[in-house]
Amino acid sequence: MAGYWDGPEGQECPRRTWLTTRVGAAAGLVGTAYRIILLQPNSALAALQMAAADSVTMATLGAVFGLTTCLSAQIREEPEDPLNYFIGGCATGAVLGARVHSYMTGTTACLGFGITAALMKIGNKEGWRLTGPPKL
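Below the sequence we write its predicted structure tokens.
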């Protein structure tokens, strides 16, 4: 997500939302490719419908996350707080739960996405690395 971490949080909400929407759409396309390969729909039209539904869902989740984190940073006036990312992840999980018509999925996704997003923000602030040589 080149460019997402550039600049202070809570500003340039449309740009940040656009970036997270693009990442969500890309993840949806990759997930759809695997789903089409594994489930083998009966027709090309069914495959196209599957790809469109999955990609739009993931793009929507990305947009909800980007917009919620940015607005939360503005409203709370604490732009660097990981709680903004937890709120964004939780809102994203709630939308996913509404999409699949399941309270349990929404609750679980809210906690999972929220905690993951907050840890991602904390890791970015503290300079955590997942790959590359260790810092000595």
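The chain has four helices and no strands.
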